[in-house]
Amino acid sequence: MAENQREGAISNTAVGIAFEKAAKKFFEEKEGLILTRPYPVDIGLYHSLRKSHNFDLGNETTIIECKSHTWTKGNNMPSAKMSVWNEAMYYFNLASSNYWKIFLVKKSLNKNGLSLIDYYFQTRFNFIPRDVCFYEYDEDNNTCKKYTFEDVERLHK
Hints:
Layout: H1 12-30, E1 39-43, E2 51-55, E3 57-58, E4 62-67, H2 79-94, E5 100-106, H3 116-123, E6 132-138, E7 143-147, H4 149-155
Parallel strand pairs: 4-5, 5-6
Antiparallel strand pairs: 1-2, 3-4, 6-7
């Protein structure tokens, strides 16, 4: 098994694809969203200089990025993964404001009970666009906890 591969997984790519499929099913069943995987959207700061980017899921009104990252085996924050989350926030920022933007993450708690999403809110709040909605997906019971930008702001008052 590769050093950074999820325990029990064929590959990290397979883990990500399985998570996207579970997310697609969740949003179709719970939110009534019919989604395409992947979903291309033209993004960019300037209308004349846009380039296509594949979001994990989407349709004509909604774009979703899915991340199944977890705390490391040693209970450390996965620093490289936080950079990937920051990159996703940038892509959301470059997408049209006409989309409902959802960032779906796997629920992962460290030994102190801190979730990875709460850690991100506490340390990377300055990267989060106002129009991104966060969902923390609990695979064990097929539920999501929803967070808005206002929830992030409340943490910093």
